[in-house]
Structures are given as C-alpha cells and as structure tokens.
Amino acid sequence: MSWESWVIETISRALAFGTPLLLATVGEIYAERSGVLNLGVEGMMLMGALTGFAISMGSGNPWLGILIAGLVGGAFSLVHAFASITLRANQVVSGLALTMLGTGLSGVIGRAYEGFPLWSKLGRIDVPVLSSIPVLGPALFENQSPMTYIAIGIAVLGWLVLFKTRMGISIRAVGEDPATADSLGIRVPLVRYLCVMVGGVLAGFAGAYWSVAYRTAWSGGMTAGLGWIVIALTIFAFWNPLYGLVGAFFFAAMRVLSFRLQAWLPPELLKAMPYLLAILVLIIVSRGTLQKRMGAPSALTLPYTRGED
Amino acid sequence: MRMPSWIQVERRSSISPWTIFAISISAIVLALLLAGLLFRLFGVSPIRAYGDIIRGALGSKLGITETIRRMIPLLVIGVGLTVAFRALFWNIGAEGQLLVGTVAATGVALFSGIPEILMIPAMFIAGFAAGALWGMGPAYLKVKLGINDVITTLLLNYVAIALVEWLVYGPWKGPTQRGFAYTDRFSAAASLPVIAGTRIHWPTLAIGVFAAILLFVLVKRTRVGFEIRVVGENPDAAKYSGISQTKITLLAMMISGGLAGVAGVGEVAGIHHMLLSPEQISLGYGYTAIIVAWLARRNPLAAILTSFLFGVIMRGGDVIKVSLGLPFELVDVFNGVILFMLIGSELFIRYRVRIGARREVA
Fold first, then answer.
1. pLDDT tens across B88-108, in order?
2. Residue B11 counted as domain residue
3. How many separate domains does chain B show?
4. What tens digit of pLDDT does each residue of B204-225 get?
5. Residue B165 belongs to domain spanning
6. Is the pTM of this model over 0.95?
7. Among all residues of chain B, which has the CA nearest to that of A279?
8. Cβ of B170 under 8 Å from any chain A Cβ?
9. What's the rounded mean pLDDT across residues B40-69?
10. Which of A128, A166, A277, B326 has the CA that lies 20 to 30 A from A138?
11. How far is B191 from chain A, CA to nearest CA, in Å?
C-alpha cells in the first residue's frame, strides 16, 4: 500500500470511529461543566443504540431512529438527574446504577432484535466538490457518514455556547460556584437538569450511530465500554468541546493505528488496546503542566442546596 | 432545592441502626414493586414470578445451596469492597480483579508442578496476589498522579476480559478439549472440596466469612482501620495528622483487589475446574458486589447478609429463565433499580422528612 492510501485510510476510519466518542464526550462535558458527573454514559448509549436500531428497522428511516434515540437517551438521563440533583444522591453510585439499568433494560428488551441485519441503515456520503481535493478529499470528505459532520458541528456549537454566550457563563458558574450563581439569580437545579439532559441526548445519538451507521446491527452490550472511554476523554479534553474534538479523533486514530499491530498481536489482545490507550491518555494529561490551570469544575459531584455549606 | 411548603426537610443529627435497617428494607421492597412492572411488560404476573423466585431460591435444599453458591463470590468480593469504599476508593474493577485471579490460579494449577498438598493454598495465594496487583495499579495512579479511580479500575475490567479470552483461545487452549475454548481440566488436587451433593465450595465460603469478621475488627478496632476511615472521611485531616494516604489507599486496594482475586480462584477451582470464556466464569459478580457493599453500608459483617440477598436474586434469575423463559439480564435491571432506590433512600437517612405544616422552633 502506498503511504498516501495508508494515511487516507487511517484518517477516514478514525473519523468514523471517533464520531460516537465525540458526540457523547460533548454531552458529558455539558453535564460535568454544570457540576454533575454522569457515569451512566455506557447505559445511555446502549439505550440509544437499541432505540435507534428498533425505530430504523420499524420505520425504515434511520434518521428517525437516531432522533428518537436522542429523546430516549435524554429521558433516561433524567433518572440520574433526579437522583443526583433533587435527591442529592452520590453521583458515582447513581451513574453506575444508570449504566446497570441501561445495560439490563436494553439487553432484556433488545432480545427480539438480536441477529437481524439492518436494511434501513444510515448510508455514507461524498461531500460534493471537497471530495475531489487530492489526499484531503478522500481522507476527510469521501465515503463518510453524515453523522460525522453533524458531530463536528455539534462540538463547535457546543464550544460556542459554553464559552461565548451568557448561557455558557451560567452553566460554568453553576459548576464552579453554585452558591454565587444562585445569588445572581441563576436557577441552579434547572441548569443542571438541562445539562444532564444534553448529555443524555448526545449519548443517545452516539449509541444510535453505533447501531444504525457503524455496525448496522444490534446485540446486547454492543458498545463494549465506549461509554467509559468517553468519561476518560472528557478529562482528556479539559472539559472543552473543542479539545474534545481533537481528543476524540486523536484517540480514534490511535485505535485505528493499533490495528496495524495485527501482524504481531493476536486479535484478542488487540481488543484490549482502546482501554489501555484510554488509561495512557489519562496518564499523559496528568503529567501535563496544563492540569494546574485547567482542572475539573470545582463543584463537580457536589450536590447543591441553598443555605447549606 | 425548593420543596412544597407541606414537606419539611431537616438534617438528622443522629440515626439508630434500626432506622437505617427499616429504610433499607423499604427501599428494596419498593424496588421489587417497580421491577414487578417489568414482568408485566413480558406478560407474566409479578406475583407468579416472585413466587417462582422465592420457591426456587429458598424453597428447597437445591435452591438454598445454589443460592449460597451464587452468594460466595459476592460475599468475598463485597467484603473487600467495603474496605475500599471506606477509604473512599471507588473500586469498580472487581470484575477484572476476579478474572486475573482466575488466570493466576489456572497458571498454578496447570503449569506450576507444585506438590499436590500445597496446590490449593498456592492457587489462593497466587489469585490474591494477582487481584491485589491489578487493583493496586489504579490505586497508585490515583495517589501519585491524581487519576480518577472509577475510570481506571473500570477500563482494566475490559483488559482482563481480553487477557482471559486470549489465553483460552490461544496459548492455554486445552489440547484435550476438542476445539472448545477451554483450558485443560484441573487435576483433583487443584479442585476445591464441596459440601457433598452441592456446588458449595466451602473453603471459599469460609474465607469470605473469616474475612468479614477479620475486616470488621480491623476497621472498627485497630489503628490501621482508624486511618482508613480518616482517609475516607476527611483526607485533609489525614494529611495533617501524618497519615500516609498512599500507604492506606494501596493497603485498602490490596485487600479489595486481593479478595476479588480469591473469589476468582473459588469460581475456577470450585465450580468450573478450568479456565473458560469470561462471560461463563462471571455473571457480573464484580458489579453486583458493589451493591452488596453499598447496601451493607460499608460494614464487612453486614455484607454476609446482603450477599445472601443478592445470591437469592441471582438464583432467581436462573429460576425464571427456566420456569418462565425470561432473560437472565433481568437481574441487571433488578440490580440497577435496587441501587437507585438505595441511594434515593439515603436522603431519608441523612435528612428527616416530615409531611405537614412547619413546626415552629423556639
């Protein structure tokens, strides 16, 4: 294989693999920026994957499947929002419970959908004009899922809202110092509910992409830990959607490159690579001097009650 | 949080163990009622389903012994998790620590050539060591580099799964197993004794009960236990009083990871007598044990009781799979709902909730 086609294939496949990671990471960034850690990403993605698959299969329209998957993801995340915001429950345990519930429910309900090929899958597109640019065209704009470009758009929009609008200032204030935000008239619980729901909707999209566009099949537990990699990427991105964009595709590229080790590593060990890479990524970030300036939101995992310390 | 005026919420200053017990039981009952709706979804009467579960798990000698068989790994892991959780280390990696324990035990059983009389102890020690190391890695990363423990312990579960799959499909695949992805069978010397006519490998059960008592004493009565509690409850105070967070966290994870490894030894040496694919070895014991430890309110002795309860639920999953044709994954749904009810119920443990008009405090 010439080096050109090698680079093109690597980038092209990294975009496809990184798309769900990016979507869900932007969502988790919103939840965490508002002060709510949601470890239920894996469960929400699975609920989204099943919904997307079932609706696409039933309606013949993959876009409808992805849309409803987002709604289901958002509704499902409300369980975590209610437990952690209203009931002030421990966010780590509540998130784990959401993952258990999502894995179990999607596994039980999804039994009926296992083993079917999806005819109404989301196809791939060539972007007109741009795809004819040499090298860059085939790498970035040829035979890609439209969801990839939507995910990039959502990440950029997510960054704009978070850092360039009043709404974004409110969200970050709620995550850094809820008492002060409250005294400024920001409705802390409302902001947190909405941000957790953004996380749920985007995780639902991510899951649906996995079952409707990437794998085009459903099986129980099919996301196999992607949701946990998203939690790691959120830290890797320093809670910034634009870094999330870089991080998700960088991670995906490393994953794609690890396939090149096929000649030396048995396939079972290759399966361990993304998880080891995610840990490696966390080690790299912790080593960085940047950490001192850009840490986690101060009120992350802390429930807020007016008038309490 | 804004509450309607007829609901009053105030912080409790103290709470009796009986109130905690009563609140926990109510949470479980509520969870069972909610999960009952799920049976409806499948067109099965919840009363019939719960009847089958109770009869199947507790109504016969076979039922009770199979419940205890499921309880054993939950107890051994759950007891260890109470210690990790006390040190505020979120060990979500017991599943992986269990699996590396099975790998270590299998390595000793099949390839070490250790004298028969030492075989079982050597397998337990190797399993403990493997689980402990697998757990202490994330502990080291947390105390030295500040890396989130939930994520690292969890990601390592998937690495452990890949490791076991590689071994049983590759280098350790048994020549005598006619192409199945199993290792060869363990010799009799590498198999745990069971209570006659059951699958209760009693040495592992004994280790679990013994560990529960020992760790209860450790946590409540010793200097180290005190330091574990301080690190968990008030890390700043720990720092100022010269307690080494590094030492305590590593110790807690040695215990927690090690016991999960021991649970793995019990499963391969007591039940399967070979290493096989991860999903056949563990039905998510490492995850369910998190609820066992949480419901026990991080009390090692109480884990004996709570692991039995979840033994009933897992056995219940086996029963309704056969009697009603329902998928075993219903157990995961149960677990998730129960966990939500439990953490929800903690509001009532930390706060007193009154319905009615506000009482004026003079």
1. 999 999 999 999 999 999 999
2. no
3. 1
4. 999 999 999 999 999 999 999 9
5. 75-304
6. no
7. B152
8. yes
9. 92
10. A277
11. 28
